[in-house]
Amino acid sequence: MTGHLHPISLVINDIYDYFKPLGFEIVTGPEIVTTEENFDSLNIGPNHPARAEFDTFYLKDGRTLRAHMTSMYLQEMRKRVAKGGLSQPVRLLFPGRCFRNEATDATHNNIFHQMDGLVIDEQTNMANLIATLEGLMKHLIGGQLDFRIRSSYFPFTEPSIELDIKRPNSGWLEMLGAGMVNPNVIKYYGLDPEKYQGYAFGLGLERILNVASDVQDIRYNLSGDYRYLGQFNS
Amino acid sequence: MKCTFNQFQAAINNFTWDIQTLADNLSAIGFETEVHDQHLDIAVLSNRPECKIFQYLVYDLAGIYDLMLIEKLEIKPGRKVFVTKDQVAKLLGFEVSDNDYQKLSRLGFNITDESVTPPDFRTDIETTADIAEEVGRMIGYQNIQPQPLTPTKPQSSPNFEKIMATAIELVAAGLTETRTDSFASTGLVTLNNPFTETEPFLRDTLLTGLLKTLAKNPFMKRAAFFEIGDIYLPEEEKYLGIIMSGYKDISELQANIEQILDTEVVFVDVPAEDLAKHNVTQPRVKWCQIPLSKLAIIHKELDWQSHKLKKIKPISKFPPLVRDVTISSSDDEVKELVIKLPAEFPTLLFAEIVDRYEAPGSTVPSLTIRGIFQKIESSFTQDEITSLSEKFERYLSKA
Questions:
Q1: Closest chain B residue to the Cα of A112, Cα to Cα
Q2: At what angle do helices A7-19 and A126-141 cross, to 10 degrees?
Q3: In Å, how far are A67, B156, B289 from A37, measured between CA atoms?
Q4: What is the mean predicted confidence (pLDDT) over B250-275?
Q5: CB–CB of A183 and B127 under 8 A?
Q6: Cβ contact (<8 Å) for A10 and B309?
Q7: Strand B176-177, strand B223-232: pairing
Q8: Which of B56, B67, B88, B247 is 20 to 30 A from B228 via CA?
Q9: ipTM of predicted assembly, 2 dp
Q10: What is the pTM of this model?
């Protein structure tokens, strides 16, 4: 009998296949996080609009549902930082479900999936980041691809970039955001930003399905519709 | 400050204002302007933010496009950043030439061997990373030569691999993975600002989502789905939920699942009121739910290779036609037929072998092939259903 892995699981496994030989570890964590994990530790100030209730889901006790997988960094880094240093380089992936209080349509849902990546050591740089992202896109999307790197802004990375891809006979598509981990964030982990540096990126998994599999409506991913699930490889 | 209008126009792509319009718009935000033929005199009247931004804009453009300002505006120094060219190069990952580094001066930055002092209006410049961003933007990130990350020793990811292994093994046993909503109409954890008033809780069971999955597929009389997801009891914990419908005898499937999970699994009937509440029409619905923490780590080497994502067919908003046909034939012959099905049946969404039975003493198995048909533009008419069903059965009986 034929069973089928969920397409989001397929994408996660595919990304893991790319990163595992590079020494990355996948970390899973809770969907409920503190505001420190979701915002404070990521250089997101107290008045940032993302904190507002029209963007983030709050529990009665003040905790939040994670709005992005970047909220997983703090608890993992606290496990790995000791006496102001790292015993080994950090190479982590964080796949999971995220929640944002926004209107739903074919390209937006209040529940969606992301994969974040985090590297921190003493030498990883922007050139490594660009190579990582271009390699990942080739691995996931395949075919002939052109890349464009644009300057961008995220509170937790500096410099920040966005990566676009272009396939033959199509326009530019924005795929993901990334950047060098902001020194304020590195300091928050108890590390010296003069010594440690690294990169972070965040990737929408529904976006990959939209581009690679032509999935036009992201709500299919939580629909349970077998006509959708059954079309993906078992 | 004075600059020629032609230089200004040349510096900004697709700039469509004429010189008088530019002068009028600058006057409207606090600049004193005077137009002389193709020259524009611009005086900064105040320290208003838009004036600072304009100063930055002109210096930024001057830095990139080599504009010659006739008179240089006095720049007040901002906060010094202690940084060296080598530190910037380390962050960016390539050697920054002296020429490129010195271009910062065109932006009003004062550069020494050990520090960079931005103009006072560049309050965003505080760290080495900020200076690196200025340099990177000027050079262009496109022009950075990518350098692959050096592989390091492979790491294990025990929790993830346990989830992945569990899912893969269940799929191999014939179950399909689903993912469902975390919000619920009942539960133990309340949201302060729920998306809808009807679902103000975080789910405390996977059953609701599994039932909704069954309800979404009413034409699949026989089905088996599972979900691995977080529920809130009220503490958050990851659970595996399995639901099946239409099986007269679940013992074989149950035994498979217990072998995979290495634990006893008790399936219970879903109460009739729950089936009715979620519009589930399938017969013999059973389910179970197990905390993932109770499952052992699956250590065996998995026969798994990632599959490249392929383009899927669009899904019709009209109900599908699902037909199961059982024939006695060899596996290879049936697989051959199934591969050729799309060419014979344009409305076929996909087909798959959903069951295999080998009677004791028999040399030829019975295989059940399920075809899922759809029309994008409308539902099937009754005549189309009859004709399609007969054709599907005739085609497969050729085996």
A1: B181
A2: 140
A3: 10, 25, 30
A4: 93
A5: yes
A6: yes
A7: parallel
A8: B247
A9: 0.95
A10: 0.85
